[in-house]
Write a structure and sequence with these properties.
The complex is a heterodimer of chains A (271) and B (184).
Chain A (H helix, E strand, L loop, with lengths): L20 H20 L18 H4 L6 E3 L35 E10 L9 E6 L24 E5 L5 E7 L4 E3 L5 E3 L2 E6 L8 E7 L9 H4 L4 H4 L3 E4 L10 E4 L2 E3 L14
Chain B lengths: L17 H4 L17 E8 L9 E6 L24 E5 L5 E6 L11 E8 L6 E6 L4 H6 L8 H4 L5 E2 L3 E3 L2 E2 L9 E3 L1
Parallel strand pairs in B: 1-8, 1-9
Antiparallel strand pairs in B: 1-4, 2-3, 2-5, 5-6, 7-8
């Protein structure tokens, strides 16, 4: 199904297709209808993205076809890589001051709390973020979207959660951008998050979206999380307590890291 | 707290992560390539047509040669030369990844492995696996995890020794599809 027309592919996505968007939407609707039937029949809610989700064309040849094996975490998997505060500069949590001038776009603050599924804070742990600029362009040599690069915005940040698991960073609201999954395909605005929990079992990469984005129903990556309530967990919400007077809008996005039996590893030293 | 909180699901890393996650230090050098005990851990990641993935990110996390979990905090800057046990790299245009590291040891007789997290465009949430060092069939049959797997699938988790260290290929699909794991 990848590249069925033989015409797809460009620098952005060599396996891109020019499939009709309506074909993609029909496939997404069929998967959702089948899921709703299963739920109505008493099946458990799916808590993660489908690994195999054919409307996301790149998953067809890359997603494993066999079920994963369930194991108890052992040894190293119960711990998490130790990153030190001295390794990340404070300035890296403000993506708007990393160049000589102010980036263009809507300045925002994103903040929230990272916990495990028992509600215990993920303290002093590394968070990495990256995103497109306000025009929907990434600083990446393979991003060929003809939207302007902003010389004052790279869209890369790193920071640590505090002692209560809270994080906070300042950035520019990213723009939506086109991609080559199908014809006229656009990703909803999002920020990529790379997260380390209290064990290797909790290591995930995900994306935060913005509430009310009209592209949600059209996006195969967002809808690969088939349950609407589950995918809404990826949506940041406007929060008055985070907004700053005459300065920035604020969005709250709390993160819960699952995975593993929750063996508690308290980081030690230096913090 | 008795009620468990709903867990945040993962999403794909996408194609454009290099400048954010790999633009600084040489994260694939868990130890310097000139370290006297260095080994190379290398292999190729391929899709369902056997085509190499040129845009796959891998992380390893491992114990030291003494079998102990490293607690040194220098994984990002890598200025001290301490062994932190954490590495990150991406595959090249041939789908090949390469780490310079030390051989993980065993503190209590367990079979040593590298914990692996794999991310790529087309992979909707993290894939996890283990790379075991070569071991005898007898040892594999006694291992609490490996022994649960059919013999032919077990082989997908065992590295091969070569001149410079260990080789471990990852097949995302097909007859030799690598075993991926989820934690209980």
């Amino acid at each position: 199904m990848a590249n069925p027309s033989g015409k797809g592919g460009n620098g952005v996505d060599p396996e891109g297709t020019l499939d009709s968007p309506f074909k993609i939407y029909d496939e997404m609707a069929a998967i959702k209808a089948e899921y709703d039937q299963k739920i109505a029949a008493g099946a458990p809610i799916e808590e993660e993205a489908r690994v195999q989700y054919p409307p996301y064309r790149s998953s067809i040849l890359r997603a494993p076809t066999k079920d994963p094996h369930h194991v108890d975490p052992e040894g190293i998997e119960l711990f998490t890589p130790a990153f030190g505060h001295h390794e990340v500069a404070a300035i890296e949590s403000d993506l708007t001051i990393q160049a000589n001038g102010e980036p263009l776009g809507e300045r925002i603050i994103v903040a929230g709390k990272i916990t495990d599924s028992w509600g215990r804070p993920v303290r002093n742990q590394l968070v990495e973020v990256w995103q497109a600029n306000a025009s929907g362009r990434y600083i990446h040599k393979r991003d060929q979207h003809p939207a302007p690069i902003d010389p004052n915005f790279t869209g890369v940040g790193r920071f640590f959660t505090d002692n209560d698991g809270n994080y906070r960073f300042t950035t520019i609201k990213p723009g939506p951008y086109p991609w080559r999954n199908h014809s006229n395909a656009w990703r909803p605005a999002h920020i990529h998050f790379s997260l380390f929990g209290t064990g290797f079992t909790q290591r995930i990469i995900t994306q935060m979206y913005f509430e009310g984005d009209p592209l949600f129903p059209l996006d195969p990556i967002y809808n690969s999380i088939v349950d609407p309530k589950v995918r809404e967990r990826l949506v940041g919400h406007l929060d008055h307590d985070i907004m700053e007077h005459e300065w920035a809008l604020g969005y709250r996005w709390d993160i819960v890291l699952g995975g593993g039996s929750g063996t508690w590893f308290e980081p030690e030293g230096e913090h | 707290m008795s009620e468990r909180l709903p867990v945040t699901p993962g999403q794909t890393i996408g194609p454009f992560y290099h400048y954010a996650l790999l633009n600084r230090e040489k994260f694939n050098e868990v130890v310097a390539p000139h370290h006297p005990d260095v080994i190379e851990l290398t292999g190729r990641v391929v899709d369902g047509l056997g085509k190499p993935l040129p845009d796959c990110m891998l992380e390893i996390w491992q114990v030291g040669p003494d079998g102990k979990v490293p607690t040194e905090r220098d994984s990002l800057k890598r200025k001290t030369g301490h062994f932190t046990g954490w590495g990150r790299t991406s595959t090249n245009t041939d789908g090949v990844y390469r780490f310079f590291t030390l051989t993980p040891g065993s503190a209590n007789g367990e079979n040593p492995f590298f914990a692996v997290a794999l991310f790529a465009r087309g992979i909707l949430h993290v894939l996890r696996t283990r790379i075991y060092l070569p071991l005898s069939d007898d040892a594999a049959a006694k291992d609490p995890f490996l022994s649960m797997l059919p013999a032919e699938r077990r082989q997908t988790l065992i590295a091969k020794k070569d001149e410079y260290g260990y080789r471990f290929d990852i097949n995302l699909q097909g007859d030799d599809e690598t075993v991926f794991i989820e934690f209980n």
